Amino acid sequence: MPTFDEVLKEAGEFGRFQKRVFFLLSQTGITFSSLFASVVFLGRASENFWCRIPGAAELSKRCGWTLEEERNFTVLPLHLGNKSSSGECERLDVSWDDSVSCASPLAHYGNHSMGHLPLTTCHDNWVYEQPHSSLISEYNLVCGNAWMLDLSQAILNLGFLTGAFTLGYAADRYGRILIYLLSCLGVGICGIIVAFAPNFTVFLIFRFIQGVFGKGTWMTCYVIVTEIVGSDQRIVGIVIQIFFTLGIMILPGIAYLIPTWQGIQLAISLPNFLFLLYYWVVPESPRWLLTRKKGDKALKIMRNIAKHNGKFLSPHYSEITISNEEVSNPSFLDLVRTPQMRRCTLILMYAWFASALIYQGLIMRLGIVGGNFYLDFFISGAVELPAAFLIIVTIDRIGRRLPFALSNIVAGIACLITAFLPEDIPWLKTTVATLGRLSITIAFEVVYLVNSELYPTTLRNFGVSLCSSLCDLGGIIAPFLLFRLAAIWLELPLIIFSILAVVCGLLVLLLPETKGISLPETVEDVEQLSSHFGKCGKKKKHRDTNSYI
């Protein structure tokens, strides 16, 4: 009786069918990355706003002032009298009524009008030259409320974290494609609600839920792609991340063409409804079906794959072997119960955390210097493209482990060098920092592939989701770590990044090489894979099997 990998080899490991599924599911990377980075454009800073004096709106209407004239009467005297105040977070502590003159509304305040003017803090009466253009003007996220914009991104990351646990578990229990489709539906519905949220509280609640479903779409599509191709073709796990970068590059174009934050939100959310059409073209993962003792359905899908690939399964392929391992609901204990599973899990969790923290930290530090905001954001995304191509040309030649380790170590060295380079050669600091970002991007993309290759089918989606949840934790911590340490010494964050990256590179060397091996089906396979350090897949071990017609 043939194994699944033998059947897959005869049906075609990366034929027309897999290429179609790969291309369709890769589009998820574009929508997910747009959601991930959307706060940059949803929360564009409002350059011109000021605090309105109570009664100013009525007076302006009675006097026929333009918005610019109202601002001159409100802000200019305040600035002349109190040069430290810009009129954005403070206002004159006065109230205008019908007795105020249109020609000189501050005249009856005498000497105070241009001298020591009474001031008060502005709370909720701001005026924007471009109202409703961003989250900031929509929900007054300025002055004392500015931190709430950062909260919105933290809430999204918390949603990603929650989705990694809940939907990763659900995909292993109920199926990959079911959870993928439900997640796409959830992202679309929540995206619409977010766009028309009546207040900031509703906005945060549904942005969190959108994050949960967003993580479900990305992680599940990644696992489906890696499970339907042969061991020599799992480089598609790297290629699919090119679409994530494409989403980063497309986003500024969307934001440039759409002037309001609601329009941008809808533009990145509504495409998820189109993914529901995949119900008719993307099948359930046959590997997952076998682990749930549904061999007949798995074989039916394999015959369909062979047909689309122009192949024909031999008549004796009426059964597919499946491990005798008992299938149960996955839990964290399953990932750490055996020695080598425990080693892989702990190292991968640290790798996800360090990669995310350093990646986001370097982006915030390097920043975008002047120029066109949209063009600079596009260029900052394009910097990541070489990472995927470098991986593609090296990973199947020299393996996963060495590029994984070297990219972390090079990133750490680049951070350390950048910290001690003098400020009077900014071009060199920027170049070395960019090298660090390119290297950590490579590490970030390789960890996706290695993570999926080191877990058995019964635990793969849950394991990838759980380990990658540390990515979201790193993303939440990164800004706080960066700015708190920079307050002590500007280069101190780079020293911490360097240590984290080098340690990660050394730990990665303890992982087994997964180049050219079949995906493990059971925990026993993982233990065997790890026991032949550096020679994985060279030695076969007999497994008791059952067959399903």
UniProtKB/TrEMBL annotation:
<feature type="transmembrane region" description="Helical">
    <location>
        <begin position="154"/>
        <end position="171"/>
    </location>
</feature>
<feature type="transmembrane region" description="Helical">
    <location>
        <begin position="237"/>
        <end position="258"/>
    </location>
</feature>
<keyword id="KW-0472">Membrane</keyword>
<comment type="similarity">
    <text>Belongs to the major facilitator (TC 2.A.1) superfamily. Organic cation transporter (TC 2.A.1.19) family.</text>
</comment>
<protein>
    <recommendedName>
        <fullName>Solute carrier family 22 member 3</fullName>
    </recommendedName>
</protein>
<keyword id="KW-1133">Transmembrane helix</keyword>
<dbReference type="GO" id="GO:0006811">
    <property type="term" value="P:monoatomic ion transport"/>
</dbReference>
<feature type="transmembrane region" description="Helical">
    <location>
        <begin position="204"/>
        <end position="225"/>
    </location>
</feature>
<keyword id="KW-0539">Nucleus</keyword>
<dbReference type="GO" id="GO:0006837">
    <property type="term" value="P:serotonin transport"/>
</dbReference>
<keyword id="KW-0813">Transport</keyword>
<feature type="transmembrane region" description="Helical">
    <location>
        <begin position="21"/>
        <end position="42"/>
    </location>
</feature>
<dbReference type="GO" id="GO:0051608">
    <property type="term" value="P:histamine transport"/>
</dbReference>
<dbReference type="InterPro" id="IPR005828">
    <property type="entry name" value="MFS_sugar_transport-like"/>
</dbReference>
<keyword id="KW-0496">Mitochondrion</keyword>
<dbReference type="GO" id="GO:0008504">
    <property type="term" value="F:monoamine transmembrane transporter activity"/>
</dbReference>
<feature type="transmembrane region" description="Helical">
    <location>
        <begin position="427"/>
        <end position="450"/>
    </location>
</feature>
<keyword id="KW-0812">Transmembrane</keyword>
<dbReference type="InterPro" id="IPR020846">
    <property type="entry name" value="MFS_dom"/>
</dbReference>
<dbReference type="GO" id="GO:0015872">
    <property type="term" value="P:dopamine transport"/>
</dbReference>
<feature type="transmembrane region" description="Helical">
    <location>
        <begin position="488"/>
        <end position="511"/>
    </location>
</feature>
<dbReference type="GO" id="GO:0015651">
    <property type="term" value="F:quaternary ammonium group transmembrane transporter activity"/>
</dbReference>
<feature type="domain" description="Major facilitator superfamily (MFS) profile">
    <location>
        <begin position="110"/>
        <end position="516"/>
    </location>
</feature>
<dbReference type="GO" id="GO:0031966">
    <property type="term" value="C:mitochondrial membrane"/>
</dbReference>
<dbReference type="GO" id="GO:0005640">
    <property type="term" value="C:nuclear outer membrane"/>
</dbReference>
<dbReference type="GO" id="GO:0005326">
    <property type="term" value="F:neurotransmitter transmembrane transporter activity"/>
</dbReference>
<dbReference type="GO" id="GO:0016323">
    <property type="term" value="C:basolateral plasma membrane"/>
</dbReference>
<feature type="transmembrane region" description="Helical">
    <location>
        <begin position="402"/>
        <end position="421"/>
    </location>
</feature>
<keyword id="KW-0406">Ion transport</keyword>
<dbReference type="InterPro" id="IPR005829">
    <property type="entry name" value="Sugar_transporter_CS"/>
</dbReference>
<feature type="transmembrane region" description="Helical">
    <location>
        <begin position="374"/>
        <end position="395"/>
    </location>
</feature>
<feature type="transmembrane region" description="Helical">
    <location>
        <begin position="178"/>
        <end position="198"/>
    </location>
</feature>
<feature type="transmembrane region" description="Helical">
    <location>
        <begin position="347"/>
        <end position="368"/>
    </location>
</feature>
<feature type="transmembrane region" description="Helical">
    <location>
        <begin position="264"/>
        <end position="282"/>
    </location>
</feature>
<dbReference type="GO" id="GO:0015874">
    <property type="term" value="P:norepinephrine transport"/>
</dbReference>
<dbReference type="InterPro" id="IPR004749">
    <property type="entry name" value="Orgcat_transp/SVOP"/>
</dbReference>
<keyword id="KW-0325">Glycoprotein</keyword>
<dbReference type="GO" id="GO:0016324">
    <property type="term" value="C:apical plasma membrane"/>
</dbReference>
<feature type="transmembrane region" description="Helical">
    <location>
        <begin position="462"/>
        <end position="482"/>
    </location>
</feature>
<keyword id="KW-1003">Cell membrane</keyword>
<dbReference type="InterPro" id="IPR036259">
    <property type="entry name" value="MFS_trans_sf"/>
</dbReference>
<dbReference type="Pfam" id="PF00083">
    <property type="entry name" value="Sugar_tr"/>
</dbReference>
